[in-house]
Amino acid sequence: MNLFRNLKVPRPVFAICLNTLVTHLGFYAMTAILTVYLSQVKGLPLSVTAVVTMIFTVSYRSARFLTGPLLDNMDPFKCMWFGCLLTGVSIAMVDFWQSPVLITIQLIIAGIGYSVRGLSSKASLSFVGSKDGNALFYFANSNMYTNGAAIAGPLIGSFLLTSSLKSFTLTFVGGFYVLGAILLNIFPPGCSLMGRDRKPVSFWKGYQTVLLDKSFRKVLLFNMIGCFFFTQLFNSFPYLIGTYYNAPERLGSLLMLNGILVVALQIPVGRWMNTALSGQREGYRLMLAFLLFSVSFSMNAIIGSIWGYYVFVALFTLAEILFIPTIDAYVSNAAHPDLRITYFSVIGLSTALGEGIGVYTGLQFIHMWSIYGKLSYFWLSLALLSGLSLVLYVMLNRSPVHHKEEEKLWRY
User: Fold this and answer.
1) Spatial distance between the Cα atoms of 309 and 213, rounded to a whole number of angstroms
2) What is the number of other CB atoms lying within 10 angstroms of the CB of residue 212?
3) Rg from Cα positions in the chain
4) What is the largest CA-CA distance in the chain?
5) What sign does the CA torsion over 192, 197, 203, 207 have?
6) How many angstroms separate the CA atoms of 122 and 16, rounded?
7) How far apart are CA 137 and CA 318, in angstroms?
8) pLDDT tens per residue across span 69-89
9) Cβ neighbours, 10 Å, residue 331
10) pLDDT tens per residue, range 265-288
11) Whole-angstrom Cα distance, residue 9 to residue 139?
12) Which among 1, 324, 320, 326 has a CA at the least distance from the CA of 188?
């Protein structure tokens, strides 16, 4: 079709990205207002609201571990469709329950559906990308749609919660997932996304195969490290802005800048990476990401003004644009054809671990340096850690590269 040629992506990639946009509009609309919805609309005490929210977060983060190898035995596109329906219906049902137990059960089921949809979409992109060698570009497209939803989603959630239909807020949110399933029927992939002659995947054997992959363990390590830094923008930074820098009114525009820059720059930067940093230069992608993390943290420590924070967000976003699709492409290239979803489920656990450690450590660093009245040292600490991560990456990935023109041995 002319549509897909104009978008310069295959039909399955367009369908996946469109589904990603619609479903993540619902996801970000929900996560932005869930605690307020539970406390104000459902009337749950703050302690109960905290527990329910925590269980939902744990469910959609950890369910991928339980579903990974099982989904590798199924068509990923059909799994996406099922995940969308399961999530949409489960979220919508929350509006009709008052019991905290029943609400929690519905959110757990929604978390499972969310994991199924997410893992299946990555496996589908990986399959298409492995066929034509454009996995990095396809994952960059997906990340752009995700961030587009991250910009608009919270606005939608806030509008729903403050409207006269606030009692049906999650019904509308669930509707985004149902719409995502409908769009998958309107724009089917047009081809099978399962490899031929596949062998059945057993649960424990699948994970054993993945964890014994030595090169993939490096990806797990550096994904966890990158997520440690990534979460500072969305946890430590807002806490500092609102608590110590007394500029909470700037927080919305600062975080929105992140999403806008991702939407605007992800595709051109992705194309540049796919050409300038391809082949023997692939290792420079993460090196550059860690370098930009370090520079952005250093700039925040040095400038220390409200306009400096915008510079920080811009540099940090460039690091994010490099980091996220690079990791997805690495996983796609490393994944065994029969274990794509299992590989992505394991990298998801690495992400959760990195983000969890990042949140805790970041807040502890803030507390420690605030005692000494040296909050700038918090950013310098992060800059030092990201610099050390860059050194570690170079050390663990030093490999001989034969230069074709000069017949010399080079290392990076």
Assistant:
1) 40
2) 9
3) 22
4) 72
5) negative
6) 9
7) 16
8) 677 777 888 888 999 999 999
9) 24
10) 888 888 888 788 877 788 888 999
11) 11
12) 1
